[in-house]
Amino acid sequence: MSDTQRVWFITGANRGIGLELTKQLLESPFNTIIAASRNPSQATALRALSDSAKGRVHLITLDISNKASVQASVKETESILKDRGLDYLINNAGINPAGFDNAFSMDLDNVQAAFATNVIGPAHVAQAYLPLVEKSAAKTIVNVSSTLGSLGTDFGPHFASYSISKAALNMLTVKQAYDRPDLTVVTVCPGHLKTDMGGESAPLEVSVGVSGVLKVIHGLTHEDSGKFINHAGERVPW
Ligand SMILES: NC(=O)c1ccc[n+]([C@@H]2O[C@H](COP(=O)([O-])OP(=O)(O)OC[C@H]3O[C@@H](n4cnc5c(N)ncnc54)[C@H](OP(=O)(O)O)[C@@H]3O)[C@@H](O)[C@H]2O)c1
Q1: pLDDT digits 0-9 by tens, 55-88
Q2: Which of 63, 129, 145, 197 to mutate to test the pocket of ligand 1 (most atoms within 8 A of CB)?
Q3: Cα separation, 11 vs 64, whole angstroms
């Protein structure tokens, strides 16, 4: 890998936004992508991308809610990177286990599941991969959140467990940015996109939201650290 190459690490890269991020990043010959998923052997679309990428997409196994899996994935990534660092860590994997649940009737097991994947998973991945991010040129962590986690935006009572977990992910981002002023850490909303999670009736194609997110990431400066930004490049109210 040459010095002009940038290395990206994407969780949940086998479908939806993670897959599209991998696809669009591959359009630049300067990008190398470490594409993490729970079951790379079954990730048919991702494997097809990797097969045509001439060694620029590396598939690794990672379940972000499993501590042993996170640790094992670091070793696997280190063996791919050798002495290189990780420029962009994209904490994309996420779940909405309950759909439209409301605060007084939500199943608390769903709240726990949402926190395990949407908050604790990204927190653990960031801790485990910090030495690799520190070694890189860009030193950037992007947490993929949602405007549903914005306290300043009125979405009514629904999506309670998911929204609460994304608000917590936003606070994680702020704490990470304060804790390590030498890094750039942001939280982004990709927009409501047509994916398995977003549903077929979502207003935006996944390609539109993802190209917006990549434009935002490419335009980041160090002063943006700690911000909540959407795919259109606008600040989202906390
Ligand atoms: N789509 C939208 O409209 C929208 C809007 C705002 C924010 N977001 C956020 O964008 C991110 C991606 O969403 P999406 O629409 O692409 O969702 P999706 O189509 O449902 O894909 C979710 C991805 O996360 C992975 N994942 C879930 N739990 C995981 C775990 N424990 N370990 C590793 N990977 C795991 C899934 O892997 P498996 O295939 O193994 O399940 C899958 O690759 C999420 O954080 C979501 O909250 C989405």
Answers
A1: 999 999 999 999 999 999 999 999 999 999 999 9
A2: 197
A3: 8
